[in-house]
Amino acid sequence: MTPTAASAQASPSQTLSRGIRALEILAEAEQPLTIAELADAMGVHRSVAYRILRTLEDHSLLVRDDGGRVQPGPGLAVLARGVSRNLQTAALPELTQLANALTMSAFVVVWDHAECVTLVTVDPRHTGATVVQHPGSRHPISAGAPGIAIQSAFSEQEWHEAAPGIPYRAEAAEARRRGYAASHDEVIAGVSSLAVPVRVPGGRPAALAVVYIRAAQDPETVAAALAASAARIEMQLG
Under a CB-based contact definition with an 8 Å cutoff, are residues 185 and 162 in contact? Predict the structure, then answer.
């Protein structure tokens, strides 16, 4: 392959990149957007945004309401269902049990470059005192118990090899020693979190976590419940 051909093959698709960016903007928006608002957020002319939206609409990745505003469509749910499908399937019963037994929001995050992304979450029944971690929400891997837990699955040397440029937190070494990570006031003000790593065969580690405003149980007891659930998830993943 010639250098020119190799370069052309490696060149990213601007149209695809814009389409993905449009979906990211819509997913982060608190309400449906007009085409003009979306075009401004994307930094493109309205006609360019309109062509991209028509394509996404054809695949049900977005929909328009009666006023012509756009929002994420049901096709995204179909795509999301396939993300770490085995991990989602194995984790959901454990999350449900943890959330209701501990009266805390329970969730699984996966490592994505320099961030943690919430994959699936369960809030406890019959209580208003929950802290919602929406699937798809992101926070830096360098902040919060889930990121510390993911780092703790590695030694410091292993982490530097796996994630060059992302510092290895001192708290990760402590979490590696005691088996769980803890944080307070890092991702959401006033909120605490406990997390343990989940080792995924053939993939990067994830983390199983709970968040709470005021703990009703001893952190060691909660961490033990998380570790037991993580072990069962890992067993199902093989």
Answer: no
Beta bridge partners of 71: 63
**Structure-token match 């005021």, residue found:** 214
Per residue in 79-99, pLDDT (tens digit) is 666 556 788 888 999 999 999
Rounded CA separation 143/150 (Å): 11
User: 207: helix, coil or strand?
Assistant: strand
**Angle, vertex CA 89, rays to CA 87 and CA 92, nearest 5:** 100
d(CA 108, CA 121) in angstroms, rounded, equals: 7
What DSSP line would sit under 112-167, residue for residue? Answer: ETTEEEEEEEEPPTT-S------TT-EEETTSSHHHHHHHHTS-HHHHHHHSTTS-
Q: What tokens does 18 get?
A: 């814009």
**Predicted TM-score of the model (pTM):** 0.72
Degrees, nearest 5: CA angle 132-83-118: 20
